[in-house]
Structures are given as structure tokens and as C-alpha cells.
Amino acid sequence: MEGGDHLAHERKKAQFDVEAMKIVWAGSRHAFEVSDRISKLVASDPAFRKDNRPMLSRKELFKNTLRKAAYAWKRIIELRLSEEEASKLRFYVDEPAFTDLHWGMFLPAIKGQGTEEQQQKWLPLAYKMQIIGCYAQTELGHGSNSSKWWPGGLGKISTHAVVYARLITDGQDHGVHGFIVQLRSLDDHSPLPGITVGDIGMKFGNGAYNTMDNGVLRFDHVRIPRDQMLMKVSQVSREGKYSQSNVPRQLVYGTMVFVRQTIVADASCALSRAVCIATRYSAVRRQFGSQNGGPETQVIDYKTQQSRLFPLLASAYAFRFVGEWLKWLYTDVTQRLQANDFSTLPEAHACTAGLKSLTTAATADGIEECRKLCGGHGYLCSSGLPELFAVYVPACTYEGDNTVLLLQVARFLVKTLSQLGSGKQPVGTTAYMGQVEHLMQCHCNVQKAEDWLKPAVILEAFEARSARMSVACAKNLSKFTNPEEGFAELSGDLVEAAIAHCQLIIVSKFIEKLQQDIPGKGVKQQLGVLCNIYALFLLHKHQGDFLSTGCITPKQAYLANEQLRALYSQARPNAIALVDAFNYTDHYLGSILGCYDGNVYPKLYEAAWKDPLNDSVVPDGYREYIWPMLKQQLRTARL
Ligand SMILES: CCCCCCCCCC/C=C\CCCCCCCCCC(=O)SCCNC(=O)CCNC(=O)[C@H](O)C(C)(C)COP(=O)(O)OP(=O)(O)OC[C@H]1O[C@@H](n2cnc3c(N)ncnc32)[C@H](O)[C@@H]1OP(=O)(O)O
Ligand SMILES: Cc1cc2nc3c(=O)[nH]c(=O)nc-3n(C[C@H](O)[C@H](O)[C@H](O)COP(=O)(O)OP(=O)(O)OC[C@H]3O[C@@H](n4cnc5c(N)ncnc54)[C@H](O)[C@@H]3O)c2cc1C
């Protein structure tokens, strides 16, 4: 079959209004319209071509990124794009660049930690890109204070950095503070005296994150003017006297709360992209199972394929909604901070750290699973999946290693439990801990598989599991005379308790989403199916937790799995429409396997011939290496 829509028959099966679902996915009609318009703008502009990335050398790749970044900036100005539109443009250009750190970390660090005066001086320069900044926190060897190592944009492009370093006055160490430091001349881009700066070298995968100049930075007697210390949290006077404002010191880490929140939103984008590719290809691909000479089975109809693919589809939607909620939480905490209310900062920190950890880990694993779901063709660069994995997987490490972040959540949980004794009522995402007595002894009321579809039943099971795991950790911790020693010894269990808590947040935010008014025929019903798949898939995967804490019985675990299978059958006819609702262009997907029309095989065949290796029939090197070897073999054979 040539041309046409090879997935048309699948699209006809949809039991819901896809256009309405597109709006739910985008967040609002306005967000949908902006996203749709900008994605088409990028896709139709040859300057944003990206299919050649895996073939380019590092130098060519990097220069190409600089060209694209400058061109994108020119278009942003010419078209007078708003910040929302500009950030969508960056998203659809789909290439990590120094600009991400400039807009995503350098600017927010100055906004969050700079005084009014400092903001007035630096922000206009940064907004007009008259200076380019990065965020330099990580060191080559922890605590070595020797060299900064890793900051994106630092290696070759940034003119300035927010550098985190220890502040010492009069021999007294006041801990880590942020400083704005000029690194390179604004005239000829050469490093300023005393500054050594460069790129740290090639990273995982061709193309991928190698468009970014992650860098190394060393200082040798570099003087930073006093007014370039970010002074919202603490100050040094002209006389060298150190003082602190009436705000928590933790605000120094505020940029991380912001960025982690954006990383959660980004996880749903990366996962949905991989799932879109794997779902479309699974409907196109037929393999075995032919009956009476009829067509072979579409691989999407195999239950094993469904049980690997549909939880990922459901996770993409779940991460979307928890990301939306986290954005709200971040906006709320920011407004409170402006009004000197710091009470919700620890919760915002725990939620952003924990959800960053959970969603990036599931997304990185999910992209790799999608590659396997596409069989051998998934391994081709033209599937789009190898590069997506390579570019995404460092999200498990940057902005805080995922395990380190879960330990931060665990500390927050243990602290919340310990405060129950003093009568402090937990609020927000830990409000359920207030019911700890009930949750420690409640019994799950599931008697038949459909009982697992009741939101209250699911919520109680997840709350009881999380509360029981945290309480068990707290009890074990109390056996240690040295709390830090206990924390280190029990860190494995603490991480598991933190995961249980974060999974509960995601499940409960999905359920809350379904309580809203969601217009469009069948839309809410499909989201209900996905929500139940997400929750029951987690319950099935972690049934050891639910069983060992006595939250459910083995029979109830069995019934959950039975219900899960039924839900997969309900999702099946809607699968293609559910990924169409992401509204991704073929340019953004960058995948032959995931192309909208499903015309996979002719495109794969054509693409193979475009590989530079196929430019000539006889490859370079044949004459030099292979021909002499063959001749040698022939001579030996004749002898
Ligand atoms: C108009 C044109 C527009 C154009 C638009 C373009 C659009 C582009 C936009 C792009 C947008 C976004 C893109 C962003 C791209 C990002 C790319 C990724 C780059 C990656 C960058 C990095 O990796 S930066 C380095 C990050 N490093 C880490 O995350 C380190 C992890 N370690 C920690 O977090 C540690 O906690 C710490 C180092 C911060 C502190 O350790 P320390 O041991 O000193 O302290 P504790 O851990 O004991 O904590 C002490 C108390 O502080 C609390 N805490 C800790 N962290 C925080 C926090 N972040 N916020 C609040 N509170 C915090 C902790 O709970 C302890 O509290 P108490 O228990 O109460 O004492
Ligand atoms: C692509 C990329 C881009 C980056 N961009 C930037 C940037 O722009 N700016 C910047 O400042 N940094 C950046 N980083 C650095 C990044 O933030 C750090 O790599 C990250 O925070 C992890 O720290 P680490 O490398 O020191 O890992 P380590 O802390 O050395 O972790 C190594 C291992 O030790 C474990 N571990 C560490 N501490 C503990 C503990 N307390 N308890 C139990 N286990 C522990 C971890 O779980 C991990 O398994 C970037 C990194 C990458 C990969």
C-alpha cells in the first residue's frame, strides 16, 4: 500500500473527541493554539532541519546549534513573539543549547536571589541577550573547590556565570553563596585574566546532548566585585561585615525548585513522544498470528505489547497532569515568598525533588522500552528513539541525582511524622499523614475486580502503603542513638518510602483532574481508563509493598491484575487517537516509525539510501584495506 493514511482505520475506532483531548493535553484552548501554530512554524522552516544531527562531527554539530540559536532569536524578534511563544519555539526546535541555561537558570537565579538593585542592573542585559549566562554549581571533585565541571553553556559561549562558592570573611566560612562572574571579554570573547575555561568533551550518543558546551572553569586570583554577590538572602557590607536577611537560607537553592518543576513538565513531553512513536508503529507492524491465510496480527494486539505500552501511555498523561499541578504549586510558593510566607517552601522542595526523580527515571526507562517495543527498527537512528534516549537520560542525574533527591524527600517525610507528636497537622501532599492511625489499620474493601475502579479505594490503598512504609522507617530510625547513622543505614528503605509517597501524589493528582469539568465526547471516560491503568499498573508492579505492609490481600492483588487486563482492552481501540492528541508534527517526532500517516516501510527504505555510506557503491577504504586482504586470501587458496 503506497501513500494515503495507513492508520486511518485505527483513527476511525476512537471512542472520544480527539480535538477536545488535544485541548486537555495542551492545558487550555489558548495553549493549544500557540503550540499548534509554533510547531508548524518550526516544522515548515528548513533552517530548523534536524535529521542530519547523528551524521555531523562535534564541531559541525555545535556550529549548527549556534546558527539555529541565533536564527531562532532573530525570528523571535522579527515576529515579536511573546515569552510563551518563544519558549514553545525553543521546545519545537528540539536541540539543547546554551540558551536553555541562560533563560532557564541564569536569569531565574538572578531573579530569585538578587536584590532589586541587582535585578535592575543585570536582567535587562540578560533579557536582550547582551550578556549570556550559565549556572555553575557542580564541581569536578565534590567539595574540592578546585574546578567547576559540567555547567551547560559554560564551555564555549557564556560571557557570565552565576557561580556557587563558599563565602569567607575574616577567616569565617559562611557557606555556599551565588556570585555573578564575568568570564569572557564582551569584545573578543577571550577569557578574562585568571580564568581558565573550556568544554569538558564528548558525551553519550552522537548528536544528542553534544549540542551543549558543558564546561570546566578555574579561577586564579579572580576578584569579584562585592555587589556581584547575590544579596537577597545575605549581604556583605563595604566594611566586610556579613549579615543575613530575615528569609530562610534555603532560598539560595530556589533556582533548583524552579528548574525541577520544568523538568517534570518536560518528562511528559519526552515520554509522550516516545509513546507516540511506539504506538503508531505497533499498529503498523504485523508479525505472526495469521489465520487462514489472512493478514498477520498487528503487534499492538498482543497482550504483552499492551501491558508494556499502555502503562507508558497512561504515565505520559499522568505526568502531564502532575506537571500542571506542580506549576501551580510553584506559582503559589513564589507568591507566598514575596509576601514573606516561607511555610510551604519545604513541601515545594520535597515535591519538586521527588517528582523530578520519579518522572525522569520512568521516562528514561520508558523511552528505552519504546525502543524495544519497535523491535529491530527501533535501534535505527531514523526511529528517533536512540537520540531521544541519549538526550533525555542525563535528566536522571542533572538537577540532582535521582537517589539523592529521594533522600531529601525521605527527610521531609520523617520530619513530618515526627511533628505529628507535637500536634502539628500536616497539610497539602502530606495531609493524609494526619490520618495515620486509621491508615495503619484500615482494610482494603475490594471483593471483585471492578471494585478497583473506585477512586476512594485506590487512594486509600496508596495512602496506607505510603504511610505504613514511612512509619516503619521512622520506627527503625528511632532505634539508633545517632540519627544520621540511622538515616545512612536505612537509606534504601527510606528511598522506597519516598517513592511510595511520590507515586501517591501522581495518582491523587490524576484523580483530582478527573473531578474537574472536562468537555468533549468521551474525553473524561478515556482519561478515567488511563488513570486506572496508571494506578493499577503501579499497584501490580509494587505489589510486594502493598502485600508486605498488609494494605491488600493476595486475592485483591490478583483482582487488580484482572482489572488491569480489562482496562488494556478498553484502551486498545483508542490508542492511536490518544497519541494523536499530543498533536506532534512529524518534524518534532523526528521518527519514520512514528510518522502520522504510518507509511513506514517505503520511508525506511528511502532513508537507508540517503545514508552517506551509500553515496558510492564501493566504500572508501575498500581499495586500501579489503582488496589487499581478498587478494591475499585468493593467493593462499591457490597455493
Ligand atoms: C523571550 C525569550 C524567551 C526564550 C525562551 C527560551 C526558553 C528556554 C527555557 C528553558 C527552561 C528551562 C530549561 C532548563 C534546562 C535545564 C537543563 C538542566 C541543567 C542542569 C543544571 C544542573 O544540574 S545545576 C546543578 C544542580 N545540582 C543539584 O541539584 C545538586 C543536588 N544536591 C542538592 O540539591 C543538595 O540538597 C544541595 C547541594 C542543594 C544542598 O546540600 P547540603 O548538604 O548543603 O544541604 P541539605 O541537603 O542538608 O539541605 C539543607 C536544608 O535545605 C533544604 N533544601 C535543600 N535543597 C533545597 C531546595 N532546592 N529548596 C529548598 N530547600 C532545600 C533541605 O530540605 C534542608 O532543610 P532542613 O531539613 O529543613 O534543614
Ligand atoms: C548533561 C548534564 C548537564 C549538567 N548541567 C549542569 C549545569 O548546568 N550546572 C551545574 O552546576 N551542574 C550541571 N550538571 C551536574 C549535575 O548537576 C550533577 O552531575 C548532579 O547534581 C549529580 O552530582 P554528581 O555528578 O556530583 O554525582 P555524585 O553525587 O557523585 O553521584 C554519584 C553516585 O553517588 C550517589 N550518591 C551521592 N551522594 C549520595 C548520598 N548522600 N547518599 C547516597 N548516595 C549518594 C548517587 O546516587 C550516585 O549514584 C550537569 C550534569 C549533566 C550530566
TrEMBL record:
<comment type="similarity">
    <text>Belongs to the acyl-CoA oxidase family.</text>
</comment>
<dbReference type="InterPro" id="IPR029320">
    <property type="entry name" value="Acyl-CoA_ox_N"/>
</dbReference>
<dbReference type="InterPro" id="IPR009100">
    <property type="entry name" value="AcylCoA_DH/oxidase_NM_dom_sf"/>
</dbReference>
<feature type="domain" description="Acyl-CoA oxidase C-alpha1">
    <location>
        <begin position="253"/>
        <end position="414"/>
    </location>
</feature>
<feature type="domain" description="Acyl-coenzyme A oxidase N-terminal">
    <location>
        <begin position="17"/>
        <end position="132"/>
    </location>
</feature>
<keyword id="KW-0274">FAD</keyword>
<feature type="domain" description="Acyl-CoA oxidase C-terminal">
    <location>
        <begin position="455"/>
        <end position="631"/>
    </location>
</feature>
<feature type="binding site">
    <location>
        <position position="138"/>
    </location>
    <ligand>
        <name>FAD</name>
    </ligand>
</feature>
<dbReference type="Pfam" id="PF01756">
    <property type="entry name" value="ACOX"/>
</dbReference>
<dbReference type="InterPro" id="IPR002655">
    <property type="entry name" value="Acyl-CoA_oxidase_C"/>
</dbReference>
<dbReference type="InterPro" id="IPR012258">
    <property type="entry name" value="Acyl-CoA_oxidase"/>
</dbReference>
<keyword id="KW-0443">Lipid metabolism</keyword>
<dbReference type="GO" id="GO:0071949">
    <property type="term" value="F:FAD binding"/>
</dbReference>
<dbReference type="InterPro" id="IPR037069">
    <property type="entry name" value="AcylCoA_DH/ox_N_sf"/>
</dbReference>
<keyword id="KW-0560">Oxidoreductase</keyword>
<keyword id="KW-0276">Fatty acid metabolism</keyword>
<keyword id="KW-0576">Peroxisome</keyword>
<dbReference type="Pfam" id="PF14749">
    <property type="entry name" value="Acyl-CoA_ox_N"/>
</dbReference>
<dbReference type="InterPro" id="IPR046373">
    <property type="entry name" value="Acyl-CoA_Oxase/DH_mid-dom_sf"/>
</dbReference>
<dbReference type="GO" id="GO:0033540">
    <property type="term" value="P:fatty acid beta-oxidation using acyl-CoA oxidase"/>
</dbReference>
<dbReference type="GO" id="GO:0005504">
    <property type="term" value="F:fatty acid binding"/>
</dbReference>
<dbReference type="GO" id="GO:0003997">
    <property type="term" value="F:acyl-CoA oxidase activity"/>
</dbReference>
<feature type="active site" description="Proton acceptor">
    <location>
        <position position="399"/>
    </location>
</feature>
<dbReference type="InterPro" id="IPR055060">
    <property type="entry name" value="ACOX_C_alpha1"/>
</dbReference>
<keyword id="KW-0285">Flavoprotein</keyword>
<dbReference type="GO" id="GO:0001676">
    <property type="term" value="P:long-chain fatty acid metabolic process"/>
</dbReference>
<protein>
    <recommendedName>
        <fullName>Acyl-coenzyme A oxidase</fullName>
    </recommendedName>
</protein>
<dbReference type="GO" id="GO:0055088">
    <property type="term" value="P:lipid homeostasis"/>
</dbReference>
<dbReference type="InterPro" id="IPR036250">
    <property type="entry name" value="AcylCo_DH-like_C"/>
</dbReference>
<feature type="binding site">
    <location>
        <position position="152"/>
    </location>
    <ligand>
        <name>FAD</name>
    </ligand>
</feature>
<dbReference type="Pfam" id="PF22924">
    <property type="entry name" value="ACOX_C_alpha1"/>
</dbReference>
<dbReference type="GO" id="GO:0005777">
    <property type="term" value="C:peroxisome"/>
</dbReference>
